[in-house]
Amino acid sequence: EKGLPAARVYSGIAPSVPHALHMPSHIFSRLGLWSEMVASDRASYQAAKDELKETTLGIGTYDALHAMDYLVFGYLQQGQDRAARELVDEVLAIRQVNVENFVAAYAFAAIPARYALERGDWVQAAKLELSPKDMAWDKFPQAEAILVFARGLGAARSGDVPAATRDRERLRALKEAMAAAKNMYWAGQTDFQIKAVDAWIAFAEQRHDEALKRMRQAVALEVASDKHPVTPGNVVPSRELLGDMLMAMNRPREAFAEFEQSLRRDPNRLRGLYGAARAAQVAGNRQAAREYYTKLVTLTAEADTHRAEIEQAKRYLKMR
After folding, report:
1. Cα(285)–Cα(26) distance, integer angstroms
2. For 86-126, how does the pLDDT look when each residue is reduced to its tens digit (9 = 90+)?
3. SS3 78
4. How many CB atoms are closer than 10 A to CB 298?
5. Cis peptide bond prior to 132, omega within 30° of 0
6. pLDDT band at 17 (very low <50, low <70, confident <90, very high)
7. What is the pTM of this model?
8. CATH number, domain 237-320
9. Where are the CATH 1.25.40.10 domain residues in the chain?
10. Which CATH architecture describes the domain 1-99?
């Protein structure tokens, strides 16, 4: 919060430089100020595209990709799925990037992963594939791990245990590659991804005690780590997944506590607000349910799609 005043004036220092236009969104993303983040990254995205001289279809810039990752994240938090989908389609059409670096690789992996996970589309998540195919993904195992994690989680949550198990094993191999390269930060990130996928595999197999144990381990590892400066945030917070799991086990009071705690670390997330509201509703806490559903409706006032979570919030708030 101390950096917010500076963030709001920073982009004016170099208004035609993509990175300068983008930098304020690092502050906005941590505070859940999605409209400001989107405005910052929309300007950065356009400036990056203006810099690219090539007009060949399928060429992108890593600056534009970086801004697009933040844009997709911000759009999805506000229920603007159509706007997000347009960017996802644009990313999937890119066949070449001006500089093959981690920033570009991360965006290529994270953008489609976010689109599936933030909407709870586990079937779509389970079908994710790396794109562009001919990118040197072996140089960026930490980026590949983002997509493999999302795919494994999608497979586990849609009941395809064999596919989820394959992705868990791929994550283990990627973690070993990162550790061998002394990339310990990302090896640690992959560790809690492995535990989260393992947790949902256990849940799918009706091993609920083991599932909760693994999910809590993932939460502990994530909480002990810091956000990487390239990312706007993890593709899904582990504690949010723990809340989902507790709700699936019909333990709404415990789920509510986890969603509330998740929102303290990752504020103003659509799925976090919905999770807290729904858990409070099922637990009979009408005041908290109204509070969080109201926040959700306010957050998504400019939604461009009919999201089930938004419709449920509006129905609940119409009740006396």
Report:
1. 34
2. 999 999 999 888 888 999 999 999 999 999 999 999 999 99
3. coil
4. 11
5. yes
6. low
7. 0.92
8. 1.25.40.10
9. 1-99, 237-320
10. Alpha Horseshoe (1.25)
